[in-house]
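Crash report, auto-generated. Payload:
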Amino acid sequence: MPEWERQIRKIIGRLRLDPAQEAEVVQELVQHLDDRYREELARGATHAHAYNVALGELKHSEAQRKKGGNIMSALVQDIRFGFRLIRKSWTFSAVAVLTLALGVGANGAIFSIVNAVLLRDLPYPDPEKLVVIWEARPREGVNNNVVSPADFTDWRNRQQVFEGIAAYTDGSPLDLSGAGEPIRLIAGNVSTSFFKVLGVAPAFGRDFAQDEEQRGRNNVVILNHGFWQRQFGGDPNIIGRRLRLGDDSFEVIGVLPASFKFSNELVDLWYPLDFTTEGMRARFNHFLTVYGRLKPGVTIGRAQQEMDRISAQLQSEVELQNQMHGASVVSLREDLTGNLRSQLLILMAAVGFVLLIACVNVANLMLSRGAARSRELAIRTSLGAGRLVIVRQLLMECLCVSFLGALAGIPVAMWGVNLLQSSVPASIPRLNEASLDPTVIAYMVVVALVTGLIFGLAPAFQTLRLNLNDTLKESNPAGGASRRRLRSSLVIAEIALAFVLLIGAGLMVRSLLKLLSVDPGFDARNVLTMSLAPRGQSTPFLRELLEKVGTLPGVGSAGFTSALPMTAQDARTGFVVEGLESTPNNPIRVHPRTVTPGYFAAMKVRLREGRLLSKEDVQSGDITRQTNPVAVVNRTAAERYWPGQTPVGKYIQILGTRREVVGVVDDVRHWGLATPANPELYMPGYRSPTNLVVRTAQDPANLAQPVREQVRQLAPDLPLAAIRTMEEVRGRSVASPRFYLALLGVFALVSLVLACAGIYGVMSYTVHQSTREIGIRIAMGARPGQVIRQFVREGLKLIAISLIVGGAAAYGLTRLMRTLLFGITPTDPQTYIAIAALTTTIALVACYIPARRAAKVDPLTALKQE
Amino acid sequence: MQHILSRMFDRELKKGSAELLIMSLVEDQPRHGYDICKRIELRSKGALTFNVASLYPLLYRLERRGWIQGRWIEKTGRRRRYYRLTAEGRKVLAAQREGWEAFVMAIRRIIRKENA
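Recovered output after restart:
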């Protein structure tokens, strides 16, 4: 009988099998070849022929499969095989697919926002030609100031590079009356070229005509589609109808298409600016946002040169007011998304980390399953299957898993987009356009495929390199060392990534806490606010309203203010501080507010020195009839304009009136918690439009109805707007950091859970592999505590390396978060330490559970496993 | 023609049904690998052939899944590994057989000539 064993071993020997396993396989195959050989002899074949036939059995089908058939049919076969495997081991597959669905879905959701906000074209024709032209004041570090109407007119007349430029400003709120319930509208005031520059034509009716930029002719409005639907039920005969807006009558000349979008989504209707008034010929009033459409072939750089040229002309012609004023041309897209870019990219990075962690987890799953499949793969290799064939097949399996992950990720992403849209602060433009469009789906598919390659490659090569060697020797404690090393590095990567995300979230928490602990300078609790804009002689009405509201049950104090903190209501003007010189570098400016005395009590604004405004100060409400006009300044104004002395008793001149400063109040964070105060000045009086501020003893929301009742009794036609508690107003000012915190927090938590699952898996595996060794140690008298310590120490080693790697990465990456943080540095040591402690604790728990199981190993059972 | 047909059969059928063939053969009595090989070749009149390279990976896979179980048995002076169907394998076989028969019926209904 020929000696088969050597032939067989020559092929299988390369695999370095466990000797016992190898002997079995060899023996079985020897028997087979013997049988074959004998049969050939029995048929009358020569010894040599029989030998060759038998030996031929060893190299046949795999080799043939490799050569035969084209690559496509082989791929299809691999894919079929992949899906079959998924069906066969469905628990494994379900875990892998769900993990990936989470990662891919979260990526899809965030990407859909990035796509809508940063990538997708603006909803105008040739959007890359649209620019915004700001006034630049390099000396003051300002490059996006709004433009004065006189400058706009000059720019418009002199420029040669734009097809047209147009101006926009938020009109004051207008009250629509005579068409059902009176309502407050938001109007956009525009130059007549506005829609032409944007490239939008009314859906029906006509656009503004050039000569409608003047008093008497500008009483024409174009309605937004949504407003037309809401208010007029989409009445097709709306054109030509007259609307009573404020004190004037306007003719409806057009309705915009439903697809029209503008950055101020609150605008209901549009009417032309009146460039004939005194104010519109001024250069000291800045309130226009200017848009331009570049002529074909003109670059932004060329347009900037042109604007520089015009600015230089104006500087020499209008010395006083245009001193050092330039212009800055920015593409509309960049203007809309400039600040958001870095913030959204941080979110993309964070969600990318989550995906990486998901990848690592699946790779770990694959590795542990690879162990179970090694025997089959090894036999196939030994029988001539090319390594490439096997790698290809393993990759295909992974791609099948990631394909299913992407499918399952689609509902996750849809849910995520909805959630984001409902919880995102209004400060992100175009967010409502986010959806799972083909771009996003394509992105998710690509992400899934790349993911499949990432988590598929490592286990594939690992399986090939190690083959049967380790896995078949599972009872051998030395086996699996290399596989374990790979899994350990994966776990290190995982914990490190989770650590970076946790630090990001931790920084946001600390930052938000700091922000919330900022003293806003007022007490927001139990305060109700609303805004109203009575027309005509408003003072008697406001005074009477204030008196009536003051007598409502539960009302502590009530007052009016022309600018409510944290609502973007603001004004700024130059003024004279007697005895102080104003210079271009140190302009004397103040933010004036007109308030009634009750305002300070209602908001609990603290007095620092002097006195607050009194009833007598507002006797008539008419400044000119006040015998001794007074004002109160805030602390910042006092320190800036009267350094080292008290302003009380000093005089100022503002808006043509000389006033005595009678008191100093604490700073109010008018521009949001994160922004330091500017100089403010409070003057007594009634002014429209204004905000009513009421402090109550009970829940302020309960007071809304009684107050509304009072207003209705006094002025049935006067609408009330923005009825909110002061706490809501304050909450809005921190909505944005809250939002980023919520997202980063969720990502960090998901990654922590995944990372813990990873370390738990590896420790369980290690414990399982070492069962025999543990058994021996326990049999030799080791105490359970010692066994536990051994494994926990091993886990601790992994955690320590992770924290070092992750800490270094976080140190490099979190500086990108600088713009998101308030009051702490991106390398805040306290955060790093606290998060490191948290991560260590949780990861240790994940190690402890398998370690305790190890300590419970029964030595007899463990040894029998051999 | 016979040759081409047999190759086509071999390729197509082995792909989907090799497991079914093996399990059917060891359903009633344990058999060793060579025996299984020969029986497939005989019963298919040479249309299907297996050899070491194609059979044993399959056997090991079926064994790993717990559908068949191999055991060393010595008969007439030779030690061979005999495979028998497990209880689990019996269930799988019943299901696969049913599926296969349904499949064959369906194919037959489709390819049967319309004129009848």
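Post-recovery validation: Residues 534-717 of chain A form one domain.
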